[in-house]
Amino acid sequence: MDGNEMLMGADVQSADGTKLGSIHRFIVYPDKNLVVGFLVGKGHMSSNYIVGVGHLKRCDATETVLSLNAAEYEQLPVHIHEQMVKATGGYAYMGMNDPSSGGAKWTMRNPNSAGLSPLDSGSMYSIAPIGDVQAMNIDDLSDESVLLSNKTEVIGSDAHHIGHLHSMSFDSTRTITAFVARSGHLLRHDVKVLASSVAGISHSHVRLNITSVQAQDAAQTH
Fold first, then answer.
1. Domains (ranges, CATH) in the chain?
2. 3-class DSSP state for residue 154?
3. pTM of the entire structure?
4. 55: helix, coil or strand?
5. How far apart are CA 181 and CA 166, in angstroms?
6. Phi, psi (5° rounding) for residue 70?
7. Can you tell me the distance from the alpha carbon of 74 to that of 52, in angstroms, rounded to the nearest whole number?
8. What DSSP element (H or E) covers 218?
9. Which among 105, 122, 129, 220 is least surrounded, fewest beta carbons within 10 Å?
10. 107-166 pLDDT, tens per residue?
11. Phi and psi dihedrals of 49, rounded to 5?
């Protein structure tokens, strides 16, 4: 798997030619500069399957094909992301009230549930509940994992916006070698950033150790 490129939103096919969905998130270990997998789903209301990089047969700018057939893919784990919330003095949400007080009771809320909008979900439709609310996110990925999406912003050391994450390149050891940031809607502009220029990675930002101007200039030389 040398010279792989994984695109956000790319269609994913099984080894027997079944369209499985599209890539919604990259799963990375920032401290080790590794990509370990990705989430595949068919939309906001569908389950996202956790696919390890080792299941890739081909992965480039034109196609993403797994070494698994459709039946084997269905046996992969589903990403679980839930949330425990509690409120001191209760909370209000879209006309609903929880009068519980004392802050001692944690309540499980599913981010896909209409009962309570998830905090820090990153959803443009989410409305946070009103009140002194504490939240604890729970998922089935390892603690060192970070999920990157097409909303992950790439910024220079000068804090200037370069674009949003579009793709990632990695080698046969799963080491991340580069990111591509895309900006614009009608007139799209891609900037390739080498991994050596990355200072830090979180779910919301890929922060560089060079300025946005330096990143633009470096991209023109690669």
1. 4-73 (2.30.30.240), 81-139 (no CATH), 146-219 (2.30.30.240)
2. strand
3. 0.77
4. helix
5. 5
6. -60, -40
7. 14
8. helix 212-219
9. 220
10. 665 544 444 444 444 443 444 555 566 776 667 788 899 999 999 999 999 999 999 999
11. -90, 140
